[in-house]
Amino acid sequence: MPRKTDRSRAVFAEAQKYLPGGVNSPVRSFRGVGGDPVVIASGSGCRLTDIDGNVYIDYCGSWGPLILGHAAPEVIEAVREAAGRGLSYGAATEAEVELARLVCDSVPSIEMVRFVNSGTEATMSALRLARAFTGRSKIVKFEGCYHGHADGLLVQAGSGVATLSLPDSAGVPPSYAAETLVVPYNDVAALETLFQQRGAEIAAVIVEPVAANMGVVPPAPGFLERLRDLTSNAGSLLVFDEVITGFRVGLGGYQALCGVMPDLTCLGKIVGGGMPVGAYGGRSEIMQMVAPLGPVYQAGTLSGNPLAMAAGLATLRALSDPGFYEALSAKAERLMSGLKAAARQAGTPLQVNRVGSMLTAFFTDGPVTDYASAKRSDTASHARFFHALLDHGVYFPPSQFEAAFISAAHEESDIEATILAFHDAFGIA
Ligand code: HOZ
User: Fold this and answer.
1) Ligand 1 centre and the CA of 247: distance in Å?
2) 378 is catalytic
3) Cα(63) to centroid(ligand 1), Å
4) Rounded Cα gap, residues 114 and 63, in angstroms
5) Are 278 and 121 in contact (CB under 8 A)?
């Protein structure tokens, strides 16, 4: 039976009168896959329900934060309890100290942390700090990595910018963009050349230690280690953007897995348990330059918001359950092998990149190791696959250049049901 979409379509038509593109964040508009977006009524566990009553097994997970699934009872209860005591004070709270302690205890390189309201704020502020600390202005980023939408970081960016095939953003003064130097991800030779030529000008290199905004692309062996050496030798800071990988691949983020310690780390998504939160932190010596201790100004009315801190605390506490990450990875591995087997049986060229509980299926026959190879993916095939999954009750991120996420709320039976949907989507049922 075809899905009912009347109400979603009507609401989206109305949305387009008032919201640019009908959305508050571009990739939600389905422009990368065509068709009208599904308008969501509610989420529970691993399922989303749209306003027409269709139910989907969800692998978008609000783009990463919902590692415990939708409306996880312990998170909702914590937020309810906090809300009963007021929504915001714009003043110090105990909860923000508890969450800060938990972050510093969990993420190896973070000695001090500042909470902000989004990943964009975290990266923007971390780079201001890096510039102040080094007294230099150039920033290095990698093609296809996405670090939020601050001016100067929207240069060859991934995520929605890649989904919409925008070269870069309009409205960024060329003088800002000129402060950003761009290198292909995983390209050690290009990095070495850049540092040889301009090392003394570079304040910081910002990198997603596992790229996830061009789809999931793991770092090549030795890439992050070499990056650490080059930045240390040049007196530049290394900034890990762990907005996606933080608390996703393990309690200590990807740095704890790979053993490469950045100077600064940016967090978001899971640290806020589904509420709007970002954070940046690192060595005390650097963090002490942030106002009011030091001269780097950064502030926010809702920073450290009590509801957000409550959601973050409840989420992070659940992650230390023994075997939590192993169970997530096992489910992701099963999903990936089912997906690969279905594609093989259908004769569809497909590469699946997976790190822990995040994965991307690229419709291409060559390995995907950087932005250039990610862009070789056949986005028309991806779009057909996405819509076929939707029709079979599975919601994947509506873009080729994003990660799918498995949560603790996905049961084995949900994974098996999804694999059946893959068979249907590839026409081999
Ligand atoms: N930049 C987010 C994904 N990497 C998209 C956020 C959203 O549209 O909600």
Assistant:
1) 18
2) no
3) 6
4) 22
5) yes
Q: Show the tokens assigned to 67.
A: 């590692």
Q: How far is the CA of 71 from the centre of ligand 1 (A)?
A: 19
Supply the DSSP symbol for 283: -
Q: How far apart are CA 80 and CA 429, in angstroms?
A: 44
Is 241 labeled as catalytic in the residue annotation? yes
- Full set of structural domains in the chain with CATH: 6-71+322-425 (3.90.1150.10), 75-319 (3.40.640.10)
The tens digit of pLDDT for each residue in 307-364 reads: 999 999 999 999 999 999 999 999 999 999 999 999 999 999 999 999 999 999 999 9
List of residues 6+ apart from 424 with CB closer than 8 A: 388, 392
From CA 318, how far away is CA 68, in angstroms rounded? 8
Closest atom of ligand 1 to 160 CA is: 1
Please tell me the pTM assigned to this model.
0.97
269 counts as catalytic: yes
Residue from 23, 27, 123 whose mutation best tests the ligand 1 pocket (most atoms within 8 A of CB) = 27
Q: Which two tokens stand for residue 144?
A: 């296809």
